[in-house]
Each structure stands twice: as structure tokens, then as C-alpha cells.
Design goal:
By secondary structure, this protein is an alpha/beta fold. The protein has helices at about 15-40, 55-65, 80-90, 100-110, 130-140, 165-180, and strands at about 45-50, 65-70, 120-125, 145, 160-165. This is Small ribosomal subunit protein uS2c.
């Protein structure tokens, strides 16, 4: 397992000790939330911004059999789920005679490739992106966000902010919570 450590100078400051212990407590709380949602049969949507390791997020979400968005966020994924569902079905039922639209379908495939359920019970956000935050707030979907900056934790639409840069460790813990919930 690969661990992503925070800045080296943070560990030398006494102020950083409560922050790291608080991060671990919040990670444990997030894993408990994921466990309870999966136990009830709910679905989770993983969303990563450009700074997060999107390949690892994609790998973990596929292992957990959950939806993910690692490319650009498409407006309306949560608020216009009927149209998004139609687009996903259209992409999956491509026929041989539709091959002349290959280029446009290839771009659409990149956008929609990780989406399975456009109405998740929980969103796990890596970094801060305004569009998914706004849509989730409108739909009342709770958000667990792994944040790198202390100021980002003050965003009111994030239900469970976690201040940490241990993305890989967090993903492995989430995967373990998914396995326990199934």
C-alpha cells in the first residue's frame, strides 16, 4: 500500500499534531458513514479534481462497483439525472451502423464512462469543485471531501470535511469499509 505523507515540515510543528489526529478521526467517521450507506444498499459517487490521483480513484471505485467521475464534471449529473441516464444507456447500446458517430461517442464515453447510478446516496470528493458541490447541495446529498487547505474546510456545503493529503491511505480505508458493508 502506498502512503502519501503531508509536508515534512508539518510534522515538526506542535500545532500539526492535533490536526493529523483529527484527520484520522474524521477518516474513521467517513469510513463508518460509507459502511452504513453500503449496508443499506445505497450507492456512492467518487469525484476527483485534477490534483487527485484519478487512476487510483478509478481503480478503487471499480473494485467497489461504484460510480466515479475523474474527467471534467458534466453539469446536471445530479440535478438532471433523467437525461444523464438516457445518455448512459445510449452509449452502452451503440450499434454497428452508428460507427460514423465514433468521434463524438468517444468524447461522450470519456465523460460518462464511470457513471452507473446518477442518483447516489453519498459523494466522496477529492479536492474542491464548485459544480458538484452546488448540485449535491441542491439535491441534499451528503459530501465527504478530502481537502488540502484549512480554508476549504469552512465551505458550508461539505458535510464531512477531512483535512489531509493521504489520498491513497483514505482510498484503501474506504475500500475496506465497502468490503465490510457488503
Amino acid at each position: 500500500m502506498e502512503v502519501n505523507y503531508m509536508n515534512k515540515d508539518l510534522f515538526w510543528r506542535k500545532r500539526a499534531t492535533p490536526m493529523t489526529s483529527e484527520s484520522f478521526l474524521r477518516m474513521r467517521q467517513a469510513c463508518n458513514i460509507v459502511y452504513s450507506i453500503v449496508k443499506k444498499g445505497g450507492s456512492v459517487l467518487f469525484v476527483s479534481s485534477g490534483s487527485a490521483p484519478s487512476k487510483k480513484i478509478e481503480e478503487i471505485s471499480k473494485r467497489c462497483n461504484q460510480s466515479f467521475v475523474t474527467e471534467r464534471w458534466i453539469g446536471g449529473i445530479l440535478t438532471n439525472s433523467a437525461q444523464i441516464s438516457k445518455n448512459i444507456i445510449r452509449l452502452k447500446s451503440t450499434k454497428k451502423e452508428d460507427l460514423n458517430f465514433f468521434k463524438s461517442d468517444f468524447k461522450s464515453d470519456l465523460k460518462y464512462r464511470g457513471l452507473r447510478d446518477p442518483c447516489p446516496s453519498l459523494i466522496i470528493l477529492f479536492g474542491v469543485e464548485e459544480k458538484p458541490l452546488r448540485e449535491a447541495y441542491k439535491k441534499g446529498i451528503p459530501i465527504i471531501a478530502l481537502l488540502l487547505d484549512k480554508e476549504e474546510t469552512k465551505i458550508s456545503s461539505i458535510t464531512y470535511p477531512i483535512l489531509s493529503s493521504w489520498t491513497n491511505l483514505f482510498l484503501e480505508e474506504l475500500h475496506y469499509a465497502f468490503l465490510q458493508g457488503h
